Amino acid sequence: MALRANQLKIGDTREEIVIDNLTRTQLVMYAGASGDYNPVHTDEVFATKVAGYPTVFAHGMLSMGATARMLTNWVGDGRLTKYGVRFVAQVWPGDTLTARATVEGVRDESGERFVDLKVATTNQSGQEVISGYASARVDP
Amino acid sequence: MAIKRFPIEASHILMFARAVNDPNPIYSDAEHARKSEVGGIIAPPTFTQSSAQFDPDYFLRPKIGQPWFGSGKEPTGAVRRPSEGRGTGAAAGGLHAEQHFEYHRPLLAGDVLTAETKPGKTWEREGKRGGKLHFSESVTEYRNQRGELMVTARGVGVRTERVIEQERG
C-alpha cells in the first residue's frame, strides 16, 4: 500500500526493529549475497589479530539494507526515489537496530507528489549508527 | 571501472533480501509480486551493491589461484596494499563513509544491467584522534538492457593516514 499525501503531516514518524541481536552468521549471509568478502566482517582471526578490532563488525551496507526494510514497509514497494546515508558508528554482533523515519515535507514535482523523510537508525544503547534521508513518490 | 553484465536474478534477490533481514514477499513470492503495483519481483533498494559479484576485478573477493589477505594458516595471507581499491566506496584498511542512491525505475527480476563507475570528488579533513582523513567519492550509473538509467549510486570511502588506528594497540 502506498502512502497518501493528504494523510501525511510533518513530524509523522515510523519505526521498526530491523535487526534483533545481530549474529555473525548474518554477516556471512551479507558477504555471500553482496560479494563483499572483506574479512573484517566475517573472519574473527583477521579482524582481531591483523586489523586490530575487538571482533568482526557489520558491513555498513547491511545496516543500510536493513534500514531500507522500514522505509519500503512504510512507503510501499518501488516507491523510493532517493535514499542516502552516512555510516556514523560501527555495528557489532549482538547489536539490535531500530530504524526510524520522520516526515520532513510533502511536495509536488512535475505533477507527482513526494514525501521527504529523515532517516536515523540507532543501536540498543540509543547511539545513532546511520543518519540519512529518503524520498518517495506518494499517492495524492 | 565498468561491469558489462549484471543480471538481476530472482534467486540472487531472494538471498540478498534474507541477508538484509527483509521478509517482504515482493522479493521472493512471484505470485504476490505479479499482483502488486510493480508487477513482478523487484530488487531491494540497496541491491545494486551486489554488482560487485559481476565485477571480475573486485578486490574484496578471493580470486582462484591468488593469495587472499584473510586468515588461513596465518592470520593474514597477504600484505595489504592501502593503495588498492580506490573508488569502490569501501576498502580493506578503509571504511565506507556514505552511500547515496537515486532510483529512476524499479529493478525487475529479468533485467540485465550494465554499470559504469567514475571517480568523483576527493577531500580531506582532520580526524578526531589526529591524522588526516582522506575521503573519495565514486559515482556508478546502472542502465538496463534498453539503455535506460535505472539507479545512480554515489559512494564515499574514507581512509586514515595510519592504516587502522587500532593496529597500534
Strand coverage percent of chain B: 25-35%
Please state how the strands of the largest beta sheet of chain A are arranged side by side.
1-3-4-5-2
Query: How would the global form of chain A be characterised?
Result: elongated
* Overall pLDDT score of chain B: 87
Which class do the helix and strand fractions of chain B yield?
A: mainly beta
Distance between the termini of chain B: 36 Å
The parts of chain A where pLDDT drops under 50 for at least 5 residues are none
Q: Give helix % range of chain A.
A: 10-25%
Mean pLDDT of chain A: 96
Determine the structural class of chain A based on helices, strands and strand pairing: alpha+beta
In whole angstroms, the N-to-C terminal distance of chain A is 13 Å
Structural commentary:
The complex is a heterodimer of chains A (140) and B (169). Chain A has helices at 24-34, 44-50, 60-75, and strands at 13-19, 80-87, 97-109, 112-122, 128-138. With 140 residues, chain A is of the alpha+beta class. Chain A contains 3 helices and 5 strands; from the N terminus they run βαααββββ. The longest helix of chain A is centred in the middle third of the chain and has 16 residues, at 60-75. The model of chain A has no long low-confidence stretch (mean pLDDT 96). A 5-stranded antiparallel sheet of chain A has the order 1-3-4-5-2, with helices on one face. Chain B is mostly beta strands. In chain B, strands 1-3-4-5-2 form a 5-stranded antiparallel sheet, with no helix packed on it. Chain B is globular. Residues 83-92 and 163-169 of chain B have low confidence and may be disordered. Chains A and B meet through helix 1, helix 2, helix 3 and strand 2 of A and helix 1 and strand 2 of B.
